[in-house]
Design goal:
heterodimer; A: 227 residues; mainly alpha; 86% helix; B: 235 residues; alpha/beta; Rossmann fold; 6-stranded mixed β-sheet; 4-stranded antiparallel β-sheet; 10 strands; globular
């Protein structure tokens, strides 16, 4: 059941005009930064760390990650607010599922969007110039990684309880790979990327919670009115 | 299949539904008549687990629909007058999602093509570009493709044109003969005498009559007759 629900969420997300524009801008940014990176790399062959060229490359490479940080919360906002309360319940009746399962499908679909977006940037990330990690950066990254782990753990628990185990294991492993990558490739680019990723996750966690609360509240309101 | 006992619904002190007893057995189709605001939609929403009543019991396919909502939902399908379809999806995708999300793998392709044929829609037609009548066709076709043991239809045929309507009625009749229990809230009984053998009348939140449905019977006369009997009875 869950793959069907997830597929629907992803299809709806892909059809959204706002998301299409966001994705297009994002892909163009990835492409542009890739070109700049190659040009810089070729023009500054043998360039040492800490040069102006390196800093430019770092900044340009950060663009897709920053966009990633904005694009994903938007995707989540559209996914979660498109259907809530009565609409969510109606769709749950049509597909014979609990509203929680639909919410989980949204969560999984959002994570797939996230991983897909990150995967698009990975080749650039791997090529990225590594910058020195300051103690402050390390602390921030450590906190972000911990938060990422908590979000992942919460997602896994919810998924496990709703018997969507296969999907949750695959999702968890992909996500752990991302976190591991962020841990190994610490630097300005990675910090921005990880920051965007974690911010997106936090936003989506907040949206999911809001969605659940709203669904519940509409139910409660109804019961309150009835009693 | 549908068993309702002493169902009641109160809102802000007003009794919207009260003392409703209703049975729709396997392979039975029951038309539900009533004036505007009599509570038909509320009743169907309660049966579809979208609302909780203030009193009474509801069983769908032998499942307590008030306690085990998720299980009950798998047994039923609700088609409403205003289907909330996503305009971004195509007709084929909508049908496929309905089948997929119910976990129906067996004969999915066949059901999908049957649904599209019934609605007379091409799979790539975008829902956002369909007329309200075509949307209703699609929604009803999707509900029929799911083949749930219980079908709840709230004015589900009203927007369908007179040429397509008999085809949908025949499809519903086929489901009925396969054992599906159908509860059909409607204002129009034209062509339904073959499908529904009986008609129940809801008035002021109560079921005030249940009688055989004769061919060509006028719903207005049924309602007027029940009102007259009721007023005579109260005098």
């Amino acid at each position: 059941m869950l793959p069907g629900l997830v597929k629907r969420e992803l299809t709806l997300a892909v059809r959204d005009t706002g998301l299409r524009i966001g994705l297009l801008v994002y892909l163009l940014a990835v492409l542009a930064s890739g070109i700049v990176f190659v040009v810089q790399g070729l023009g500054a062959a043998g360039m040492e760390h800490g040069t102006a060229g390196e800093a430019t490359v770092g900044r340009v490479l950060a663009v897709p990650w920053v966009l990633c940080g904005f694009f994903l919360p938007w995707a989540w906002w559209r996914m979660t607010w498109r259907e809530q309360g009565g609409d969510l319940l109606r769709w749950s009746v049509r597909c014979g599922a609990a509203p929680g399962q639909l919410t989980l499908a949204k969560l999984v679909a959002g994570h797939l969007c996230l991983l897909e977006t990150v995967a698009l940037s990975l080749p650039l990330l791997v090529l990225a110039w590594e910058t020195t990690l300051t103690p402050a950066n390390a602390l921030v990254l450590g906190i972000l990684d911990l938060l990422a782990f908590l979000v992942l753990a919460a997602t896994a628990i919810v998924g496990w309880n709703l018997t969507a185990r296969g999907e949750m294991v695959a999702l968890g492993l992909s996500y752990l790979t991302l976190v591991a990558l962020a841990l190994f490739r610490r630097g300005l680019v990675v910090a921005v990327g990880a920051g965007g990723t974690i911010a997106a996750n936090l936003v989506l966690a907040a949206l999911i919670t809001t969605l659940l609360v709203f669904t519940r509240r509409s139910r409660l309101r109804e019961l309150e009115v009835l009693t | 299949m549908i068993r309702v006992r002493q169902l009641s619904l109160k809102r802000r002190g007003a009794e919207l539904l009260s003392g409703i007893d209703l049975d729709v057995t396997r392979g039975e189709a029951l038309a539900l008549l009533g004036t505007n605001g009599c509570g038909r939609t509320l009743l169907l929403e309660i049966l579809a687990t979208l609302r909780r009543p203030t009193g009474g019991t509801v069983e769908i396919g032998g499942i307590d629909a008030l306690r085990e909502q998720s299980r009950a939902r798998r047994e039923l399908c609700l088609v409403e007058a205003e289907p909330g379809l996503h305009p971004e999806l195509t007709a084929g995708e909508y049908l496929e999602f309905c089948l997929e999300s119910r976990g129906i793998d067996e004969g999915r392709r066949r059901r999908l093509s049957e649904g599209l044929r019934l609605a007379e829609l091409a799979p790539e037609q975008l829902i956002g570009e369909l007329s309200p009548g075509l949307c209703q066709r699609l929604d009803l076709a999707a509900a029929l493709a799911l083949r749930t043991p219980v079908l709840l239809l709230d004015q589900a045929l009203t927007k369908i044109d007179p040429l397509a309507r008999p085809r949908f009625v025949r499809a519903l009749e086929k489901r009925r003969t396969e054992g599906c229990a159908i509860l059909l809230a409607t204002h129009c009984l034209v062509g339904l005498d073959g499908l529904c053998r009986q008609v129940a009348v809801l008035q002021g939140g109560r079921i005030v009559a249940r009688q055989a449905l004769a061919p060509g019977q006028d719903p207005g006369r049924i309602l007027a007759g029940v009102s007259r009997d009721g007023s005579e009875g109260s005098e």
